[in-house]
Amino acid sequence: MEKDYKKLISKYLKDTIDSTSIFDCHTHLFPPEHKNYYLSGLENILNYHYLIAELLTIAGTSTKEFYSLEHSKRANLIWDELFQKRTPMSESCKGVITTLNHFNISIKNKNYYEIDKELKSKNYSDKDILNICNINSLVMTNNPFDDEEWSLFERNDWDRNIYLSSMRLDNLLNDSDSLIKKKFENNQSIISFLEKCYNQSKPVYAAISASTNEFKQLLKNNLWKEILTWLNNKKLPLSLMLGVKRAINKDFGLAGDGIGDIDLKDLSKLCNSHPNNKFFVTCLSLNDQHELTVLVRKHPNLKMFGFWWFMNQPSLIEQMLKMRIDMLGLSIIPQHSDARVTDQLIYKWSKFKKILHKVLLEYYVDLNENNYEIDLEVIKNDISNLLNNNAKNFLNIK
Ligand code: FIX
Ligand code: ZN
Q: Which CATH number is 58's domain given?
């Protein structure tokens, strides 16, 4: 009887996870109409900075030599070194294999150019991929200080209901970007600029990624005090991606960022000193996950989201997801993709759905063993909250 119950819940849970529409609250994707920024296909999948870091550390390829190659040759080299000469066992490598498998592409006895051609011939659009993953909408990362990238908001030929905007403000935090700040006469002119960008892009949140020292500015610096007041007036949450140290190996380019320290006591101070601002936070280091989870129990204006970058590994996700559920129940926003290439949505979400199923099954069965009857409608509602509503409610998205 118990066994049958577990089987029934397991099947229902899997079907529900597969059929629930997802809101992806942080990506680096753009609509295909923004041609120079829309990334898809094998060449881009292989040129992902996660894989570049693996190539440059494992395969003995020199950084200079790698970056002197043209883009398709880089992809070919990564394929040869990480997928042909070695077993593609790392999470980023497995992601490529999972994605190709989803497209029904057999890689046996084929070289990079053959696989690339085969994938191209399938002609998948962004909408096809969003449908495969069951994603209703996603949040882009939009930098208002990058004119060319921001020109997306001057056009109207793309779907604003699918591609939602977030305003990325790292350039206002980083001291080395003081040139950007010099462009403005005073703090007020920065706020006017943000107001203009807000009206153009209608962001669902503003965002920064920060190391310890950068993060401290949020508490001390006058400009940031004014920005926080402006965000509060706009009812716009601030996303904080904490604990990154950029360019720990400069030569690696985008693949050279690592982990820095972060003092989460500062986050608690920020939540207390700005009780009307909402903070949408993720931390990069495993060391910070427990403390962040405790803070979320203490501050109603703080929400944690996803498994960011170095945290986005199945072994860590399973353990941390359990910890988050143990301390926060199902009020969490369990995942975001951080995808840079549209095809990556496939592996990032399919992998996560498997883990979510495994973890939740354990919890539902445990409740059942303690005579708490699980109604199937309740499961449906829980999954919809986890994959869609919790994030949209926090971000005030209708
Ligand atoms: O700052 C971010 O939003 C990070 O996600 C990126 O900078 C990083 O390069 C990345 O792609 C991680 O997944
Ligand atoms: Zn990101």
A: 1.10.2020.10
